Amino acid sequence: MGASKTTAKVLQSLLWWPSLFKDAWVFVKTCDRCQRVGNISKRDEMPQNPILELEIFDVWAIDFMGPFISSQGNTYILLAVDYVSKWIEAIVTPTNDAKVVIQFFKKVIFPRFGMPKEIISDGGSHFKGAFSNLLSKYGFIQRRGLSYHPMMSGLAEVSNREIKLILEKTVASNRKD
Questions:
Q1: Could you give the CA distance from residue 70 to residue 16 in angstroms, rounded to a whole number?
Q2: Residue 176: inside a domain, yes or no?
Q3: In this prediction, what percent of the chain has a pLDDT beyond 70?
Q4: C-alpha to C-alpha distance for 84 and 15, rounded to whole angstroms
Q5: Residue 9 in 3-state DSSP?
Q6: Is the pTM higher than 0.85?
Q7: Domain contains 53
Q8: Going by C-beta distance under 8 Å and a sequence separation of 6 or more, which residues neighbour residue 74?
Q9: 89: in domain
Q10: Mean pLDDT of 81-89
Q11: Are 79 and 60 a contacting pair, CB within 8 Å?
């Protein structure tokens, strides 16, 4: 259980004495069973959430990055991440509107990866309206989070961060490369 958990259990029982923390540490270090069993690591535990069976390229998370300083007229990056393989597709674009998203799916995602079953996005206006109509037309499920609330499309947000770090390391400050 460890010294900190032992101390917490004692405190939860509404007990306390001046040398509680030191005594808990000594108790755990001298406890034969504690030393034999050791700590149970997280990787030894069973997962607590249900396992979803997904096929590769069935579920995509999408998000826009930017605006950035203009480079050849482009100020945004549209990013799509496959939930199973973590494969990333990205394009640079001058705007962040629904038309760009629709063209991206029609010209990149559909021809290369087939029709996904589900699209996960934030609640941005570029993922509503015309884009939602396209998804309905093909029978996709769209899960939208709240605007400016990145928790729903967490995988896309993590990929955004990674791409931003790569760009910071590889693109010169004058943006000419």
A1: 62
A2: no
A3: 78
A4: 49
A5: helix
A6: no
A7: no
A8: 68, 92, 93, 94
A9: yes
A10: 91
A11: no
